[in-house]
């Protein structure tokens, strides 16, 4: 019996040691393929967050390989361990708008007039993120701006493919616009807001509602480092920041493929640009082109990319990338002209930087008022840990304060 016990202990020790070595090896590989530019402020903090995220993903992949759970489920589980915020200044309530889960943050202090309302759509590549992951951010937005904030828990990919997330955000917004009086909100002061994939959803919802005469007009849209197109993953920012945490170029393409198709079978075609026909590329080149990016953003090692055509079968799979509800940058001028005042935040060291810059130009060309704030030392996701005790970034706080 003692021998069996000893062998069991040795086996478990060997398993744990092997597991740790495997995780460390994967982390080391991912770090060796990443780059933190010298212009990033507080680079050590960024590296720590990156290692934490890699570790979580690697452990999830190992658990998936041995049949315990999927990597996506594990990462979501860890994200969901965050407890709901408690703020003495807010009433925080979980409800459903139609069938969409929402969390409402209402200031307790009485207001002399009706408040502003903010529909918030979280980021996470349409695959991750939840009411919990952005809870503290929404608390902060509600208290600092004295607004009623509605965080929307839309359905996630790959289980729920496009347009599920968009439809949930639209349905929640429609419900809120029709019931603002229940929350003490001025119907003429409703804003849609989102970060990353949430910025994509906010832009799509704003475009859909732009021409509606039967509803109150949106007061504004706030787009925080949004992803707005999937035609060209070789724009300057995608090249320059391809390996900069917290969003690699390959992962940006991977996430939108998960949202579109529930898989990433055409990842290589998307990255090289052979997923859209030449005719479509030329048609949208007036809007999606490095020629529309200011020269100062091309200094850091940009090389023009040769346009490639695609095969018929790939195009048939990928052609929905040309739908504005998926890629808002491709909306027609007639729609863009009706959009509300817009705030766009971009970060220099972010693959999605140029999506924001291109949309800024489109809006301005169509006489839409735009406030643009650019974090010269910022990276993708910099706002999320803004109120962490030891992993917050001063630049993220500065960006958030400009939004408020």
Automatic annotation (TrEMBL):
Record: active site: 196, 350, 380
* Span of domain Alpha/beta hydrolase fold-3: 118-264, 318-383
GO cellular component assignments: membrane
Among the GO molecular function terms of this UniProt record, one is: carboxylic ester hydrolase activity
InterPro entries assigned? AB_hydrolase_3 (IPR013094), AB_hydrolase_fold (IPR029058), Arylacetamide_deacetylase (IPR017157), GDXG_lipolytic_enzyme (IPR050300), Lipase_GDXG_HIS_AS (IPR002168)
Keywords, comma-separated and alphabetical: Hydrolase
Q: Per its UniProt entry, which superkingdom is the organism in?
A: Eukaryota
Q: Which PROSITE patterns match?
A: LIPASE_GDXG_HIS
Transmembrane parts of this sequence: none
Give the family per the record: Belongs to the 'GDXG' lipolytic enzyme family.
PANTHER family in alphabetical order: AB HYDROLASE SUPERFAMILY PROTEIN C4A8.06C (PTHR48081), ALPHA_BETA HYDROLASE FOLD-3 DOMAIN-CONTAINING PROTEIN (PTHR48081:SF32)
Kindly provide the name given to this protein in its UniProt entry.
Answer: ADCL4 protein
Q: What organism is this sequence from?
A: Crotophaga sulcirostris (Groove-billed ani)
